[in-house]
């Protein structure tokens, strides 16, 4: 991010603009929406500028911008449509400590003005760092359509009602009231009874929320999928939007954590202090404690929470404390990995069952398990199988598996840095060790990538595809 988006307080502050033509007028259309004191320097002003000055919407000084003019200015706009004159303005403004924007000149600007969707006091600013103005315009058009035109009014009236609503306890209770107002009772009242209707709705909605019992906290046990945020379910997305507390595992990708509500308390259950793993008991305690405090807790686990997620231990603790919970399934690593190599987990006349196993558990495999797996065509998705590769390889060969059985290792499935390594049972080790895997990896026993391109590589999939 080269440019950091902020909302600058400009009410009653000085904004200076140099230029008197079309470019200046275009900027002024935006600036005049603010409560700033605007001064325009133009030796030869457009008629519209004279008109705006006559209406006292801005102060017009009919000469070129010069030394002293940027004093105490929050912002200076150079809109002269003349590179030399703009350069002169930049030099003076910088001497006087002001931030300058040169119209249509990203390179020489200290700040840029975003595309704006205005539902004052709700303002959406869209920036592309100058990379794609077309994209910014498309997003703006989309939002203009989507955000109801009365949103500004609802927000202004809501703002005035904030103090009254503060009677509700902070956190979920208060949020539920506001969600009800903004998305249900407020818009409905506006449609039937206009502004007065909205005022009544604020009061009746508050009464309703005040006199219904405060709900207990609850826990959503949510699958975050394999890493790609687009592989989150809509339910998971909504749970993240609403969570007061998010307790997440080590493998949950940062892009997904970004989606949590900004006010949410984020707890990394993968690590405590410097690198030590949190014990399961401690995680259970945390979940229960936060829920008992009345919070909406999202327990976020990689992939699907029901697959090698120690879910049942958490459910036992939650139910023992009399707390409600629900499970939101996610896409497990095996599904993401197999999709990535263009295969199916099951296939008619090849394998009608698939095993999800962990490398650790395979050490306790019974003889008949190994025999079944060693039969041609069996497919297994081996989770946490990096360290167990040598052991698995030895046992399968011992039980008569074909040494040329396809094995594919998929590291960081669905993520940008993914790698696909196609090998065979006889080469599983040292291939696994030689690959030097850093990320989570899934071993698909009995499957090879469908395409030669995918099969080719120990390279990241992106590069291999080129
Ligand atoms: N609940 C998870 C599994 C947790 S066990 C799920 O359903 O996917 C952790 C193991 O999952 C890792 O050791 C690795 O084998 C596998 N895994 C998780 N995310 C992965 C990813 N993006 N790519 C490959 N394997 C992954």
Automatic annotation (TrEMBL):
The active site is at 249 (proton acceptor), 271 (proton donor). GO terms for molecular function: NAD binding; precorrin-2 dehydrogenase activity; sirohydrochlorin ferrochelatase activity; uroporphyrin-III C-methyltransferase activity. It holds the Pfam family TP_methylase. It catalyses: precorrin-2 + NAD(+) = sirohydrochlorin + NADH + 2 H(+). NCBIfam families: cobA_cysG_Cterm, cysG_Nterm, PRK06136.1, PRK10637.1. This is Uroporphyrinogen-III C-methyltransferase. Belongs to the precorrin methyltransferase family. Residues 221-428 form the Tetrapyrrole methylase domain. It comes from the Bacteria. GO terms for biological process: cobalamin biosynthetic process; methylation; siroheme biosynthetic process. The keyword Transferase applies. Signal peptide: none annotated. Keywords: Cobalamin biosynthesis, Lyase, Methyltransferase, Multifunctional enzyme, NAD, Oxidoreductase, Porphyrin biosynthesis, S-adenosyl-L-methionine, Transferase. Pathway: Porphyrin-containing compound metabolism; siroheme biosynthesis; precorrin-2 from uroporphyrinogen III: step 1/1; Porphyrin-containing compound metabolism; siroheme biosynthesis; sirohydrochlorin from precorrin-2: step 1/1. It comes from Marivivens niveibacter. Residues 150-206 form the Sirohaem synthase dimerisation domain.
